[in-house]
Amino acid sequence: MFRIVTPSTSSLAPPSKPQAEPAEDILMQDVEGGDAEVGPSSRVGSGRVTGPGEVIADSGKWMRGHGTYVQDEMVLASVAGTLERVNKLVSVRPLRTKYRPEVGDLVIGRIAEVGPRRWKVEANAAQSAVLMLSSINLPGGVQRRKLESDELQMRTFFQEGDLLVAEVQAFFADGAMSLHTRSLKYGKLKNGLLVVVPPALIVRLKSHFHTLPFGVDLIVGLNGYIWVSKTVPKALKADGEEVGFGEESGEGVYSGENEDISPEIRLSITRIALLLSLLADHCIPISAEIITEAFEVSIRIVGEEAEGVRSLARHEVGEQVLRALALGRGSA
Questions:
Q1: CA–CA separation, 10 vs 329, rounded Å?
Q2: What are the tens digits of pLDDT across the range 9-34?
């Protein structure tokens, strides 16, 4: 169950001068007679939303963490975010921030620069990621060392502006991500549309590759980049297994040519892109399940025609879809 978040005039008012009383109200601090253990019903660490300049603790009793600062012996939030508590340490996690990568994360990126034996990839992180020539599959799935001739043909694999899906393999000494596309499910992206949402809204799941029931594939990058494309039937080998990335012909693996997409699939891709933006604007966590439900609700409300899809961009129609979606999930 979720609720629609709308700005209010009170949230826009300037913060008042820090006082000791609000700090005790927010953090349910030590009771008289000694320190008391904060119970689960308290507001500490419960995801309470705070704003910049809001008093959250007494600096004499609590330690300040990330997203906070001390003023007049009080700990105040320096960013808008959710309040977190670990023992006596309080911090604020920003609502909107750059992606913080971890090894094994699935990410979607855009080639920003072609360098010597490497590509620089923009992946919505604090630093550009790096994809080494040795970390990609060669056309046809050939397993061999990369030669000087491969380095001369790097732009035939990826060039500036290309989109790709990859996995975080490691980190360099300066903190930059090292990516790889050696798995059969990674590589260049085509036949679709890129949607950007805050990384904090992406729900971590076992798999981030989804085939939706209306002819659309969804690749959800943990860095907030989501690829919406048409479902492409995969070829089968002689033994019945699917042909994966890297086992196709040399012309198809790194080809940037889009296939023909029917008007119906184009409308479905556009509808999903608008729904993703709508969910992100209202800070609703994104998963394949809620996208499927929102898709079906939007069809009931605005219909299947192109004009109805375009109306999803209007504020009042978007809120109507979200209310119907919330009612449907609440009664389920």
A1: 30
A2: 444 444 454 444 444 445 544 333 33
Strand ranges across the sheet with 74-77: 55-58, 74-77, 68-71
**Coil, strand, or helix at residue 141?**
helix
Q: What are phi and psi of 127, to 5 degrees?
A: -125, 155
Instruction: Judge residue 49's burial from the number of C-beta atoms within 10 Å of its C-beta, 0-12 exposed, 13-18 middle, 19 or more buried.
Output: middle
Q: Please state at what angle helix 263-281 crosses helix 315-331, rounded to 10 degrees.
A: 80
CA nearest neighbour of 221 among 244, 197, 251, 237: 197
User: Letter for the amino acid at 256?
Assistant: G
Euclidean distance between the first and final Cα of the chain, in Å? Answer: 10
Indicate the pTM of the whole model: 0.73
DSSP states of 285-319: -B-HHHHHHHHHHHHHHH-SSHHHHHHTTSHHHHH
In the DSSP assignment, the letter for residue 28 is T
Mutual angle of helices 288-302 and 263-281, in 10-degree steps: 110
- CA 25 to mean position of chain CA atoms: 34
Query: Angle formed by the axes of helices 288-302 and 315-331, to 10°?
Result: 120
Say which residues have a Cβ less than 8 Å from residue 60's Cβ, sequence separation at least 6.
73
pLDDT tens sequence across 127-184: 999 999 999 987 766 667 778 888 888 998 999 999 999 999 999 999 899 999 988 7
User: How many angstroms separate the CA atoms of 294 and 162, rounded?
Assistant: 30
